[in-house]
Design a protein that fits this description.
The complex is a heterodimer of chains A (about 110) and B (about 120). In chain A, strand 7 and strand 8 (about 100) form a beta hairpin. Chain A has strands at about 10, 20-25, 35-40, 45-50, 65-70, 70-75, 85-95, 100, 105-110. The radius of gyration of chain A is 13 Å and the shape is globular. In chain A, the strands form two sheets. In chain A, strands 1, 3, 4, 7, 8 and 9 form a six-stranded mixed β-sheet that branches. In chain A, strands 2-6-5 form a three-stranded antiparallel β-sheet, with no helix packed on it. With about 110 residues, chain A is mainly β. Chain A contains no helices and nine strands. By secondary structure, chain B is mostly beta strands. In chain B, the strands form two sheets. In chain B, strands 2, 4, 5, 6, 9, 10 and 11 form a seven-stranded mixed β-sheet that branches. The chains are: A mainly beta (about 110), B mainly beta (about 120). At the A-B interface, strand 3, strand 7 and strand 8 of A face strand 5, strand 9 and strand 10 of B.
C-alpha cells in the first residue's frame, strides 16, 4: 500500500495558524476515525499530538487540533511558535493487509 | 512514569539477522500492545507490525511478512523484534511504540510512548 499523502513542506510565521493535510482513500482515512498525528524533532522519537482524529492526549497544547472530512484528515497548529518547527506525520488504521499506514511526512518551517 | 528503553546500536552484514529489544518500565507489557516502526536515514516513518497485549497475536506489514518476528517476554517485561535476511536498505532507526488505548479501553491504532530508537546499519 502507498503511504498517506501529505505536503512535503509548509511554513508560517510566529503567531499564525497552519494546516497540514493527510489524504487517503475511502478504504482507509475515509472509513475509520483512527487517524493520529505525530511531531518529530531532529534526532528525537516521534510524539503523539492527536489520536482518533480530534482527541489530544494529556499534556498536549490546545494549539494543536485535528479534523477529518471525507478521505482527508487535517492537523491545525494555531499560534505558531519557533519550537513547532519539526516534521509532522499522520497515521491511520487502514484495516487490510498492512493495518497501519503513515503519511510521508511534512516539514514545518516557522519563518 | 511509563517508558520504553531499547537496546543499543548494531551493525550487521547483508544476509544476517538482527534482534532489537524494548524493555517496558512503569507499566505492565500485558496491558498494551507494542508496535515496531522504522525510519530510514532522511526518510519517513514506516510501520512494521504489532503484537497484541492479551494474546501475543502478531500482525505484520505485508512488506515484512516472512522476514520479521515480534515477540514479548512477560517475565522481563520486554518486547523483541527480529528481522532476517538483512539488506542494505534495512539500515534505519527502529522504534518500539506502545499502542494507545482510549478512555473506554479500546485500541486506537495510535502510539503514545516511544522507545529512544535503535540505529541498525547493514553493511558489508
Amino acid at each position: 500500500q502507498s503511504a498517506l499523502t501529505q505536503p512535503a513542506s509548509v511554513s508560517g510565521s510566529p503567531g499564525q495558524s497552519i494546516t497540514i493535510s493527510c489524504t487517503g482513500t475511502s478504504s482507509d482515512v475515509g472509513s475509520y476515525d483512527l487517524v493520529s498525528w505525530y511531531q518529530q524533532h531532529p534526532g528525537k522519537a516521534p510524539r503523539v499530538l492527536i489520536y482518533e482524529v480530534t482527541k489530544r492526549p494529556s499534556g498536549i497544547s490546545n494549539r494543536f487540533s485535528g479534523s477529518k472530512s471525507g478521505n482527508t484528515a487535517s492537523l491545525t497548529i494555531s499560534g505558531l511558535q519557533a519550537e513547532d518547527e519539526a516534521d509532522y506525520y499522520c497515521c491511520s488504521y487502514v484495516g487490510y493487509s498492512t493495518p497501519v499506514l503513515f503519511g510521508g511526512g511534512t516539514k514545518l518551517a516557522v519563518l | 512514569q511509563a517508558q520504553l528503553v531499547q537496546s543499543g546500536a548494531d551493525v550487521r552484514k547483508p544476509g544476517a539477522s538482527m534482534k532489537v529489544s524494548c524493555k517496558a518500565s512503569g507499566y505492565n507489557l500485558k496491558s498494551h500492545g507494542i508496535s515496531w516502526v522504522r525510519q530510514a536515514p532522511g526518510q519517513g516513518l514506516e510501520w512494521m507490525g504489532w503484537i497484541t497485549s492479551y494474546s501475543g497475536k502478531t500482525t505484520y506489514a505485508q512488506k515484512f511478512q516472512g522476514r520479521v518476528t515480534m515477540t514479548t517476554d512477560t517475565s522481563t517485561n520486554t518486547a523483541y523484534m527480529e528481522l532476517r535476511s538483512l539488506r542494505s536498505d534495512d539500515s534505519a532507526i527502529y522504534y518500539c511504540a506502545r499502542d494507545m488505548t482510549n478512555e473506554s479501553g479500546y485500541e486506537t491504532s495510535a502510539f503514545d510512548i516511544w522507545g529512544q530508537g535503535t540505529m541498525v546499519t547493514v553493511s558489508s
